[in-house]
# Entry
Amino acid sequence: MPEDLLSSTAWPLGSRQLNQLDDSLIVRLMGVGGDGVMTAGRVLTEAAALSGLEVLSEATCSAEVRGGETMYQLRVSPSTLVTAGDRVDIVVLLDHEADLAHREDLLTGDVLLYDSVHDAVPRAHPPGVVSYPVPMTQLAEAAGAAIAKNVVALGVLAELFGFSLTNIETSLRKRLAAKGGHVVASNLAALAGGARYVKEHLVKRDSFLVPVGSARDETVLLTGNEAIGLGALMAGCRFYAHYPITPATSVADWLATHLPLLGGKICAAEDGMASLGLAIGASYAGAKAMTGTSGPGFDLMQELIGYASMAEVPVVILDVQRAGPSTGLPTKYEQADLFSAVYGAHGDVPKIVLAPGDVHDCVHVTVEAFNLAERYQLPVILLSDASLALREHTIPRPDLAAIKVVDRVPFQPDQAPYSRYRFTDSGVSPMSAPGQPGGEYVATGLEHTGSAFPSDAPGTHQAMTDKRFQKLARLEDECSPVEREGPPSAAVGLVSWGSTQGAVREAVRRFDAIGMPVAALYPKVLWPLPVKALTAFARSVGQVVVVEANRQGQFADVIAASTSIRPKRVTLYRGVPLTAWDIFGRESLTH
# Structure
């Protein structure tokens, strides 16, 4: 194998050319907080989905309400998508202060669409890029909506590249209806003004057009956080507690609308620790319960995670990871909470850690999180991240009839006298609800006997600890914790968890396109570690490489600590999602 096999100059096709083999179109909107980048991106995403296209987006913003770079990247295709792409075809620049560090992503033939009220941008763009100056600010002011330059840009995109103006109007009306007729009318005027300006003043000088879609009646467009909320409802969640924290809050926002329709309750707590306490209490009372947070709030929950494990109370804990310790980068992306999820909480704490890999996973892995919590009566931690939280994707409409829902083993009156923590072959004991005749017990955090009486006897502690861990002995055999793709044997085997999965999937396809066999494994259950699956995968490949978005290589460390596998590591921690080129273009990956 040549030393430079994975360098960009060694490929028969470079990154750009391999991307162009597909039939997708990628649009990136950039500006600063307050420019309406997110709103414009989401309207365009919905419009493309209504046109029957597969849609996948990524978004990133700064922590400021106004100011700071905001970016929304949208990829549309008639075919299946797994990432938002690592190239860009069209850049829409809404503000001259937007970060232009991305301009090197524009290549000859790409398009830059910008607000011509600022004259700095035309002098900065690379040679060979097709530029379309549009007086977005003036057109918005003329429409009576001075802040609607983002909507003007949507009109330009519709006229220049073939996005459906009708579908954009539909999405705008829906999103703005609550703000009143005047706001709707002025924004529609701004949209029409952008489209009219193209007809009257611009000549198309590029080759980009939106691909033709087809009817997609059985798909839905969801963000990752919305998909987690949907999965929770499908699993039977009827109580959600939260303390507002970026980037987890929109799960609560979505559930606040939908959970009451099913008779459920949502509760805002004073901090992350209290929100988990509320969820544990609701579960003790018989409801399927969940709480959601991000890193700082997850830190506060560690003591009560241990309590839920000791008291054997099922509960789901969502951690939408963000970048950095402390406040860090609250709106950015990272996968650095794994050690906290796996090893956090004092004492020997049996728990389960899951991680969805895409928006579709967010639905089904959330259902699995509830099923496992109920089956094994312990805390289940669901690790999402900021990339998945904001990402929008068209996914198959979930088939409710095919969803398997598991409930906890209930106490039956004929089992009296009741022993809440009695020993069983599986380690799982029947659980009563408060007020159930004969089912009284104390859910204590103290060590206890099978009858729930506190005990500090050495033999009792050892036996009860073994009982709690016994529940997990069959986990890998009882659920499907991994996905595998690629050839049955390969020189390189990539292991990816969480949202790096999409970048790895696309990289594997590119390796296949140049005739290089690379396999991939995607664990969804991270803890207890799926040792059997990982070991079998390692035996089928020459070298295991773990790809993750943290500096320490946390999952690689967990694998090395629990198996004989000694993986290589690809670790990137820039606050933005990994791309396929981060993997495909890495020279050291295969030697």
Residues 409-473 form one domain. The chain has four domains: 24-201, 221-402, 409-473, 481-590.
